[in-house]
Amino acid sequence: MSQLRLLPSRLGAQASRLLAPHDIQMFSRRSRSSGPPAPFPSSKRGGSSSYMEEMYFAWLENPQSVHKIRGHHVAQLDPLGILDADLDSFVPSDLITTIDKLAFYDLREADLDKEFQLPTTTFIGGSEHTLSLREIIRRLESTYCQHIGLEFMFINDVEQCQWIRQKFETPGVMQFSSEEKRTLLARLVRSMRFEDFLARKWSSEKRFGLEGCEVMIPALKTIIDKSSEMGIENVILGMPHRGRLNVLANVIRKDLEQIFCQFDPKLEAADEGSGDVKYHLGMYHERINRVTNRNITLSLVANPSHLEAVDPVVQGKTKAEQFYRGDAQGKKVMSILVHGDAAFAGQGVVYETFHLSDLPSYTTNGTVHVVVNNQIGFTTDPRMARSSPYPTDVARVVNAPIFHVNADDPEAVIYVCSVAAEWRNTFNKDVVVDLVCYRRRGHNEMDEPMFTQPLMYKQIHRQVPVLKKYADKLIAEGTVTLQEFEEEIAKYDRICEEAYGRSKDKKILHIKHWLDSPWPGFFNVDGEPKSMTCPATGIPEDVLTHIGEVASSVPLKDFKIHTGLSRILRGRADMIKNRTVDWALAEYMAFGSLLKEGIHVRLSGQDVERGTFSHRHHVLHDQEVDRRTCVPMNHLWPDQAPYTVCNSSLSEYGVLGFELGYAMASPNALVLWEAQFGDFHNTAQCIIDQFISTGQAKWVRHNGIVLLLPHGMEGMGPEHSSARPERFLQMSNDDSDAYPVFTEDFEVSQLYDCNWIVVNCSTPANYFHVLRRQVLLPFRKPLIIFTPKSLLRHPEAKSSFDQMVSGASFQRVIPEDGAAAQAPEQVRRLIFCTGKVYYDLVKERSSQGLEEQVAITRLEQISPFPFDLIKQEAEKYPGAELVWCQEEHKNMGYYDYISPRFMTILSRARPIWYVGRDPAAAPATGNRNTHLVSLKKFLDTAFNLQAFEGKTF
Ligand SMILES: Cc1ncc(C[n+]2csc(CCOP(=O)(O)OP(=O)(O)O)c2C)c(N)n1
Ligand SMILES: [Mg+2]
User: Fold this and answer.
1) Which cofactors are required for activity (predicted)?
2) pLDDT value at residue 70
3) Nearest C-alpha to atom 20 of ligand 1 is from which residue?
4) C or N: which end of the chain has fewer Cβ atoms within 10 Å?
């Protein structure tokens, strides 16, 4: 069987797998119109019919073949020449790979030299309208079957497909000036010599070098250059460990000595907190782009080891930067995400992030994704790491084109990258560049890869580095001389050596020099808060009234709302007349008052617009006009800050990460994420553990994100009851055993020192104050709020304007203020509690007539623990037994957190008895009756004044 050897390369064996372009064209036609495609003039078997048309009719007969006949399947993507990038060596039977297959289309060998008419939808002809079949095959082959493999046939938009075809099919598109080639070579020199330098100086240090994918540096630089040329001024990058130091050095241009300092084991950071390993730190840099001569700000977002976790964070930060600049189309700010092949395919958050890409309140108008596809994940082969052909298949769900490229062909790489940047700028959609490369060393520099991939690594050891290959090519073609090349290397080596020398003089390290999101003007020049006072959070009554009136109205004319909603709004109006608020109104007033003060508020999460419990109704829907909505919160004052409230996709990990990133961009915003039920936050646990709880300690980065976590035991079963307060409290960093020094600014300094604030408010007013305090504080801390469900409508859970007007403020503890407080020495028991159980306790106390004997005090701010106020309360009731009462099971809730702190503040002189549900595995019962029985049981104990008699502690 003779083969169609049209190219001299080893591609020849698979020559003329050329149907991809037609295939794409046909696919596009088909999916665009429901009827048959426009008829072609010739008959299927007619001797004069064009080859293109034959292909077309063939496709019509067998549309299934469309999925098989793709050029990228046979492109030479692996620099090692071992693997098929799509994990499969399968060649579709209807591809013309050999001469005998010509017959499949009624063609013979002699037809190869016949001229054929080119359809208008192909660009391979350039200015020519006819070509010989041999030339057609050659051109298609060189476009689709060499070092670039294109996947875009699934995109159901003709214009977009045509755009891509034109970019790749047009003859001569991939030609570079000698200046461009020299720049590319110089960038490769930097990339390669940087790793070599680190390897020489710190041979036994982990650095997750880029060797085998050095081309990533010119790749990223090309994307940035091209984007800058098209107007981008701010690029936000997220990337994992591999090549990160190189990116910092050669893309972001972090000072080399600062990078080298990080290798010095003796240098400790001067900043507070744990710090982080060098390949996790972030960076922010404003500079001039040398190619375009324009200003550009580059930031690399700090990230944890948890692969891909940073993706939504980068997107959120990008969205926020676009928002603050009024860059609705993403023409000024863009994101680039770098991925590893195994992580891209394996981590679900990648999928969650892709699904945000086209949602109005979450889109960043297109992200350029770059995959470092070294065909291995730690020690795991791709065949064991994914079930999809390519590691990039996840991107297909959003119709992102995917450009696979052999990373040992630097010119192909930078061409693809420049098209990717143009694509993003043209269509504002995501695009993926898959750099098919290898990993020259083990997973890290200490690892032995031959244990597990012996044959692959034998080949890798034989592999000539890309820099040498490319330099040889340019020297051979006369673009550079050997001497120039060597000088370029020597020049960069000298830069590294000099920086190394300077790094040895450094006496001190500052993690704050690695900040990815500086907040100009927010802190003083030393990076400290401008004051250390807790602001007043109450507001004038007329502002409360005004917000309340808007919250009870429909600001748009001729807007018909649901009658049930009219009732709710009337109820609001009545409350405002009575100077009272419920939960929803308190939230309205907190948001509205901040908007008045120029603070942007953004509330995101599943079904937040209405509110899971149908209490919020921040978006009104016209009952007669489809999609006509009104957000009264944006009709408060003409010069107010904008309010965004958005129902999110059904994701916690992705969306919470996004909001965290959004909150990172500016301190002058209140950014809230609400879980549908608090229970579901654990699918975002990685964002909570790796970013929210620890972000400041690792990266000296403040963040004021607010988590609203509906919580409460209400007989709704194990998965709709608990936001797991115990977990947040266990991660709180205030010391349970250290007896505090009560300085004048204890309240605020405690907040400043903590890693996050955990509250459970029992009144709407306190919820209002804590939201306002969050933004008015002179620093930022994450705020975790356990929010109520039944209390949203509880007749007792209302607050008066008096508790919210100027002069009022957040109460960390709400002391007993009833009969017991009038004669405290008579009180036999002081019950401390938090949240909704307070109302159960008050009801039970009243029914047992124990108002004078039992005091009930509420802990509203649980962490940092209000030692000062708890001390005061306990001392006020010297003869009372102290009880902690919670509705959660004993091994959950707050008890394990509060108990040692009570012991500390009571100097272990008085016990704090536990009353609540017994320890359990599940957070709540699924049986309503069991729920009520256990509630009654612990309430009985709470008011059984003999319950602890004779017990020792
Ligand atoms: C979520 C998560 N799981 C596991 C790991 C441990 N881990 C670190 S690197 C790595 C392999 C990553 O492979 P790939 O994404 O292909 O990147 P490469 O190291 O090959 O560049 C693994 C499993 C991790 N860092 N994060
Ligand atoms: Mg890999």
Assistant:
1) Mg(2+); thiamine diphosphate
2) 53
3) 377
4) N
Q: What is the DSSP string of 255-284?
A: -HHHHHHTT-TT--BSSSS----GGG--EE
343 lines ligand 1 (CB under 6 A): yes
Ligand with the closest atom to the CA of 310: 1
Given a contact cutoff of 8 angstroms between Cβ atoms, the answer to whether 353 and 649 are in contact is: no
* Four-CA torsion 860, 861, 865, 866, nearest 10 degrees: -70
Comparing CA positions, the residue from 616, 665, 673 lying closest to residue 649 is 673
Residue 97 is predicted with a pLDDT of 60
Q: According to the model, what pLDDT value does residue 98 have?
A: 65
Ligand 1 neighbour 340 (Cβ under 6 A): yes
Going from the Cα of 377 to the center of ligand 1, the distance in angstroms, rounded, reads 6
34-47, pLDDT tens digit by residue?
A: 333 322 223 233 33
Give the amino acid at 428.
Answer: N
Closest ligand to 690 CA? Answer: 1
Give the containing element (helix H, strand E) for 367.
strand 367-373
Percent helix, percent strand, percent coil in the chain, to nearest 5:
40, 15, 45
CB 879 within 8 A of CB 909: no
> DSSP letters of 608-649?
TTT-TTS----SEE-SSSTT-EE-GGGGS-TTPPPEEEEE--
- Per-residue pLDDT, 91: 64
Ligand 1, residue 307: give the atom nearest the CA: 26
* Closest atom, ligand 1, to C-alpha of 373: 16
**Candidate of 308, 347, 378, 686 to mutate for ligand 1, largest count of ligand atoms within 8 Å of Cβ:** 378
pLDDT in tens, 677-705: 999 999 999 999 999 999 999 998 899 99
The pLDDT of residue 96: 62
CB 916 within 8 A of CB 893: yes
The backbone torsions φ and ψ at residue 835, rounded to the nearest 5 degrees and listed phi first, read 75, -150
B/e letters for 134-171, b = 16+ CB within 10 Å, e = fewer, are bbbbbbbbbbbbbbbbbbbbbbeebebbbbbbebbbee
Contact 229, 292 (CB under 8 A): yes
850: which DSSP letter?
A: -
- Of 17 and 853, which is predicted with more confidence? 853
pLDDT band per the 50, 70, 90 thresholds, residue 757? very high
Q: What is the pLDDT at residue 884?
A: 98
Does residue 757 line the site of ligand 1, with CB under 6 A?
no
Q: Ligand nearest 277 Cα, by number? A: 1
Alpha-carbon span 894 to 357, nearest angstrom: 38
* Nearest alpha-carbon partner for 503 in 255, 285, 250: 255
Q: Which atom of ligand 1 is nearest to the CA of 372?
A: 21
Reply yes or no on whether the pLDDT at 905 is more than 80: yes
CB-based contact 773:899 (threshold 8 Å): no
Number of CB atoms found within 10 A of residue 397's CB? 12
Token look-up 């603050």 returns: 324
pLDDT of residue 833: 98
Residue 306 CB less than 6 A away from ligand 1: yes
- 363 and 356 Cβ atoms separated by less than 8 Å: yes
Q: pTM (2 decimals)?
A: 0.93
User: Does ligand 1 have an atom closer than 6 angstroms to the CB of 245?
Assistant: no
pLDDT at 855: 98
Cβ atoms of 214 and 250 within 8 Å: the answer is no
Look at the alpha carbons of 498, 504, 507, 508 in this order and tell me if their dihedral is positive or negative. positive
Quick one: pLDDT at residue 526? 84
| 638 has a pLDDT exceeding 70 | yes
What's the pLDDT tens digit per position in 244-269? 999 999 999 989 998 998 887 776 66
377 lines ligand 1 (CB under 6 A): yes
Better-predicted residue by pLDDT, 526 or 720: 720
**Which DSSP string corresponds to 3-36?**
B---SSSGGGGGTT---HHHHHHHHHHHHH-SSP
